[in-house]
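Oxidoreductase (Formosa agariphila), 341 aa
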Amino acid sequence: MKYKSLGNTGLYVSELTLGTMTFDQEGGSYSAIMGATGQELATKMVNLALDAGINIFDTANIYGSGESETMLGKALGDKRKNAIIATKLYNTMTTGPNDLGTSRLAIMREVEASLKRLGTDYIDLYQVHNFDITTPLEETLRALDDLVRQGKVRYIGLSNFSAWQIAKADGLAKLMGTEKFCSVQAYYSLVGRELEREIIPASMDLGLGTLIVSPLAAGFLSGKYTRNGETTGRRAIFEYPPVEKEQGYNIVDTLKEIADRKNASVAQISLAWLLHKPGVTSVLIGARKEEQLIDNLGAADIVLSEEEMKQLDEVSAIKPEYPQYLPLMQRGQNLFGSFDQ
């Protein structure tokens, strides 16, 4: 397992993160879509991850209506000191007028609830799950800064922000002198490369780490979804994130060719491609079954050649949007030749 610093911090995280959205009890709020591990399997998965060198575990207050945090805390037990816990706030399980979002009131309430469920007195990485258009960003940043100063939170991150929102948050924190966000959590996969247009460049320019979610596009890149059809699995119930099917099947075909040559699974090659991409700090893997987790862990050992990366890049390429498709202009050049002529 390799480790990278999380943005411009001294915190080192494993290149794979264990996502715990499947940590729930049978019949729980997410179980119909995500499945439910139950506590015994959740604990086993946490131990497998730790043994493989994973040191960061991601959850959220909303996952399993809080059950995911509870089960993660129990699974870690006395191993808590060896783990980096990343959780999130914004969404809630209730519908009061002040429940949703990242107001000071909501932040202070949700952090206490998460600490209690996790069975810990501090959160390593506290992430804003969405951009709150109804709360001034200054209010959110000051409240998060207070949590860091109180020792309840060590680092802060954001999730599902657009590039301009990331830049605004970073600039405001510098202007105000508050704690800055150190990481971006966002969706990125071979069938979802939009992140490369703005968010990855913004993150790299500002020195933020990236935590990649849904790297297999909710199972589409596991290899079981083909032109012949697949009637089981999460995507049969809920097709999210969206996939352009024809290109997606071409990508899966290419993945299978490479996987066969390397005696690997399609899922492992999909994950390995992300681990080779610039700007990626850590990739979240999650599983409903023990064998899925074991297979995903194997991605850390796969090395893709330049030619294999080129194959995957080409088959999954997205069309550039304005202004990315404009010719690169540099000093001494114009569209018709050198300015010096």
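The chain has one domain: 3-315. The longest strand covers residues 153-159. ok done for today
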